[in-house]
Amino acid sequence: MFEGFHLEMIELAEATLRVRYGGSGPPLLLLHGHPRTHTTWHQVAPLLAKSFTVVCPDLRGFGKSIKPADPHDYEAFSKRAKGRDCVALMDRLGFDTFYLAGHDRGSYTAFRTALDHSSRVLKLAILDGVPILEALERSQVQFATDGWHWFFYAQSDKPEQAILADPKAWYGGCAEAMGLENYEDFQAAIHDPATVIGMLGDYRSGIELDYLHDREDRHAGRKLQCPLHVIWSLKDDLEDLYGDVLSVWQPWAEQKVTGAGIDSGHHMAEENSAELASALKAFFTAR
């Protein structure tokens, strides 16, 4: 995986992150979702590395990156804290400004990073996500049915007990579909109790704290200053849940929001890497 990329544990002020980076050109930070690690980008990153310096970390709490000591420290698991990690990481690598894309749970960290650090993020791509506040406020029967895990994962103690009883059965995954090395990294993550608790912390902070940060921004009229492009999986449920996905995002952005669906299931970086890489390259290179 990731031929020509560097793999390091990078110590930052608040966290130590496992990071893979390589390529040349303008910096592009890619943030994975749940329950993946940075290796989910193993097919996309090399394609983008022909045009960008691609940086792929394990988010705080995920993979082999640091786990906050207190599983109930919601601030430490918050997207605001993870956004600080993103900026600190790019500082450490020597990048004052950068492009940013986030998938699934990583999309919430990407959104928060761009809101809190508007001078640093040049363009933002959101993959399979809407703001946490929007998801919760629009929650009805279908979301409660399809997205039940949001609320279950936010409970205390019970979800980790259920998951760790049989992580492979809980999360599924297929080596043939994911690629062997990516699958092995994923399996190592979901079988590690500290990582499972770290991933659940992302959901707990969403319910306890992150939505409040979104609400404060909306009340204050703060919006994304950079161009925003939204990509969603046509074989997943984002359109079913929200209809016009771009209209959900438009109130959060100063500029006109662009985007489209791609022919994929939820894990688009693994299921349709070529189309995703092409869409990201087109957006980040457009003037």
UniProtKB/TrEMBL annotation:
UniProt keyword annotation of Acyltransferase present: no
Alphabetical UniProt keywords: Hydrolase
One Pfam short name: Abhydrolase_1
Taxonomic superkingdom: Bacteria
Name listed for the protein in its UniProt record: Alpha/beta hydrolase
Keyword Hydrolase belongs to the record: yes
Gene3D superfamilies: alpha/beta hydrolase (3.40.50.1820)
MF terms in GO: hydrolase activity
Domain AB hydrolase-1 as annotated: residue spans: 26-181
